[in-house]
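Hi W., the adenosine monophosphate complex you wanted:
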Amino acid sequence: MTPSNTAAGTPTPNSFAALPLTPATLANLQQLGYQEMTPIQAASLPVALAGKDLIAQAQTGSGKTAAFALALLAKLNPRWFAVQAMVLCPTRELADQVAVEIRRLARAQDNIKVITLCGGIALRGQRASLENGAHIVVGTPGRIMDHLERGYLTLEGLNTLVLDEADRMLDMGFFDDIATVARQCPPARQTLLFSATYPEGIEKLARQFMREPQRVEVAPPKTERLIEQRFYEVTRSNRLQTVGALLRHFRPVSTLAFCNTKQQCKDLVTLLQAEGFYALALYGELEQRERDQVLAQFANRSCSVLVATDVASRGLDITQLEAVINVDITPDPEVHVHRIGRTGRAGASGLALSLASMNEMGAVGKIEQYQGNPSVWFQLDELTPTGTGPLQPPMVTLQILGGRKEKIRPGDVLGALTSTEGGPAYTREQIGKIQVTEFCTFVAVARDVAAQACAKLNAGKVKGKSVKVRLLSLADQ
Ligand code: AMP
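Structure:
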């Protein structure tokens, strides 16, 4: 990779230094390791920083968050405590990720307050945060509407409205909510819309709520060479069993299995669990608490297989994913590329396994055309079990019944586990991801020390207080 600034300091065309950004912002980007603009940033930022409305085609992982965040931050007045920018997102997970990224990018400016407003969390706390003053609100359309209706949130000072993953919000039936929210924003605001695809509803949104938007697009991401794609022909009767055969043969640590329907997800998870796999399902109707629990276990590598629909998997950001299985072929080739693009990230290689029956061959043909590559087929009888014993996730999740409300921070949990008090001191290698949510904390520990670590935490103290801790198992789901 070539650095964006040569030793002499001459900026290259994709350098952030070519943009009208403050020196403090440029220094912060440098510190964050953002050497060069990503293609979507290079295409969007000049338009967005010029104050124009924008429709940008961008996928998760393209750097799209920084593309709109830098634009909205550039206009922000930190000394004025009014909501000046709002980002609408389809899911709470995405809203959380967006808020984290905005906060990172805002470090260059004085005390900028970013709050998230999503469903599944008490309105009261969110109202208090709003009363304390916020510059930027990130949230899901339904919950934002709630706050507007109750008068907790006012948008008179808003100058930037961002619709992130607009296609997904439309898929999830948020058109009317977005429209209601947009109507309450000052007409002179700037609107930035980001979407991976252009379904009809996007045009409709643009016509109703945007002013001469400029469209920018970067070439659709070609399938990474690091992703190995294999197709298997299946029948209706052996499709679900084939998933187990693939897992026993390839033994991936983490697998995301996509089904086209919620029912198929449920059937597959039941079958995989019966076959002894640690598999969990993610679909629309889960309660937020259940969703958090499932996502935490998958992200920290204590669940081998996550079975999901496309809609439910939105906003899911997992960096280490060894395999994607298309249990059903999607009729939309863009969705196929999006699905398999979740593996083979960050320089690691990935495996994309697709199961297709005769009546899905038309869809496979569309995928071949879209990718410009023929599909490569393999035989089911080559799938023989490998390795020893059942496929087990390397980690186990401990759930501590206490979270942000109790002011627990990851460091407190790490401290309790690595201390020599009340049991063996665990090494950093034996402790995985620590995720603090509103009411509880998830911590991954190596499978062979999990029970012991759970006992140690239960007997000892976290942040000076006794805590209740339990091991999550399939029986809890
Ligand atoms: P996003 O598509 O916004 O979810 O961003 C994907 C990841 O890329 C995030 O972890 C960002 O922090 C990171 N990122 C965004 N822009 C850049 C950049 N210009 N250089 C390096 N990393 C970036």
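Residues 34, 36-38, 41, 60-66, 101 surround adenosine monophosphate (CB under 6 Å).

W.
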